[in-house]
Amino acid sequence: MVTIADVARHAGVAPSTVFYVVTGKRPISAETRVRVRDSIVELGYRPPAGLRSLRLDPPDVMALVLPLRDVHLPVVARLVTSIAVAAREHELDLLLVTADRDLAGLRRAAGSDRVGGFLVLDSEDAGERLRLLGEVGRSAVLIGQSGAGNGVTCVDLDFEAAGARCVDHLADLGHRSIGFLNAPAAGHSSGVARRTLAGFTAAAMRRGVVGTALGRESLVHPTTALLCAHPAVTALVVHDDSAAEQVPRDIAVVAIRPDEAAGQTSPFTSVQLSESDLGRRAVDLLVALAGGAVPPSLTLVPPHLVQRESCSLPGRRTAVVSTARFGGGRHDR
Amino acid sequence: MVTIADVARHAGVAPSTVFYVVTGKRPISAETRVRVRDSIVELGYRPPAGLRSLRLDPPDVMALVLPLRDVHLPVVARLVTSIAVAAREHELDLLLVTADRDLAGLRRAAGSDRVGGFLVLDSEDAGERLRLLGEVGRSAVLIGQSGAGNGVTCVDLDFEAAGARCVDHLADLGHRSIGFLNAPAAGHSSGVARRTLAGFTAAAMRRGVVGTALGRESLVHPTTALLCAHPAVTALVVHDDSAAEQVPRDIAVVAIRPDEAAGQTSPFTSVQLSESDLGRRAVDLLVALAGGAVPPSLTLVPPHLVQRESCSLPGRRTAVVSTARFGGGRHDR
DNA sequence: GGGCTGTGTCGAAGCGCTTCGATTTGACCG
DNA sequence: CGGTCAAATCGAAGCGCTTCGACACAGCCC
């Protein structure tokens, strides 16, 4: 192993001088600096992990810890893409730590001095993984909310705001009775369904409109069931638009969707929760955290409203929807 | 600053014991371990980054070298996803080396003993990167063909077979005059266009049918132009189906497309070139190469034919196509 | 020339991590 | 009960990094 003392001997200076060259903590003349740098390269000295104040060998990798089991790959792929792009802007490569079963892979990644910080995608194992990272003192940001309040820096999509935004938009248009087909509250997305519903309900109350929510898993034809049971409903909020095709044309529709950067456009007015924004924000938070900042414990990425012609004043939708199907509306940002 | 000695004092053990708890280099009883961990948490001790558990680690990371500029992100994302999944099956994490400008990032990754091998996505810089990897003696597989014949192990989608497969399928159905709207031959995909055309032309000759090819970039309405100039054409091969919407309904259509694992289905009979297969094959090749095998210099991943009702006997398509739009045909694998 | 100041480098003390032989502990056995 | 052994833990020496006061030297002012 090459030490700072070896470099010092080779360069004919004191060990502390090498130290100051590497860290930049004291000014060193250009001549000496060059000589020391040459010796470092020639001997192949690798400063240990703590010794990285100077840009001599900064951490150049960000790790993303994610399961590959039990995830929806296209969604994860979009998130990974945006994270890779954002990491690149910080001149960081991205290590995908995909070990599903054990912690060994993560432990090894955590031991690498190349890795400057960890993004952890929320999952059943996330808590355990965050604990390990905490124990070895690595910066970590959780993409999700399960760790909020435990000293973990979290970032997530603001489903609550999305639910509220839908209601606000429809209420602004004059709808007084709004139905909501929520996401299935099963397993992992249960938090999503709960938070969206909370936003929907609170906004309906605030705006003084009638909000009727229905979990999608409860019935075979939830749309029909909801509209039959509540004939006063003139507008629907749907959680992802796959089921919205069945909605009668005289009902206004707002879809809560992932963003469209991936190319799948929707014919509906949508409240989009951008995985791309989420990834970017997560990277920014991690970079800040690793740099010594103390970011807020929970950051929520707000939704974007994309207006198309799938909703209008109550009872007036029919005329416009057919053009909307092929109109290809424009984004708002 | 909290030190290992503080933790030791707090937990009532020797500093070295704390050290062994943190690193796992010697066995520590569960009782002591818990006590030390509690002290670590309570005092907020942050072990320095160099403190890792194992020294003699086998390589556990595969690197993927790819540009993020000038690429079509969704396509790359699908490829990365399949590579990550395939790598996981070999118990490898995936390092995305996305440095666009300089070689420093790649050089650092190549210097890490964690990284067992490199996949290089073809691009303008790929040659330079492969040369560097060759110089430092690292295993590498090129996804693309630009290095074929230079001692580089290459793997690519078989566009030539895809072009031929389209002709064969249409000829089998009785079409005698087949048009081809090729991909734009600009920049990077020029090789793709050239190879697809070569397959198309060779198959047309072999089958004794009239093949009429047109580069898409040459005209504003290439479909119309082709059909007007060649009224005998009864079937079209299109390179990705975005332009195929304009094709008259009495013309059969086969689309050459990426695979549909990502969820975007096409209404057309398609010859699919699966990025997922490509990624998986690339990983397998790299693992084999790193393990000492000598794989073939060029591996081509064959296309899959997915039959839908967008082509039939000449002149008979109209009746079926409208159902095909909503039928959601089935895969063949 | 003598004092002053600022820069660049040194050297030794100090700190925290790391290692390894020594020591303790407790289980097991005759 | 004493002996044996392995596991668990300790303690001190060692290593490499880190800090800080000291020192050398040049330039500058008087």
Automatic annotation (TrEMBL), chains A, B:
Superkingdom as given in the UniProt entry: Bacteria
Key words, A-Z: DNA-binding, Transcription, Transcription regulation
UniProt domain HTH lacI-type: residue ranges: 2-56
Molecular function terms from GO: DNA binding
Protein name: DNA-binding LacI/PurR family transcriptional regulator
PROSITE patterns tied to this protein: HTH_LACI_2
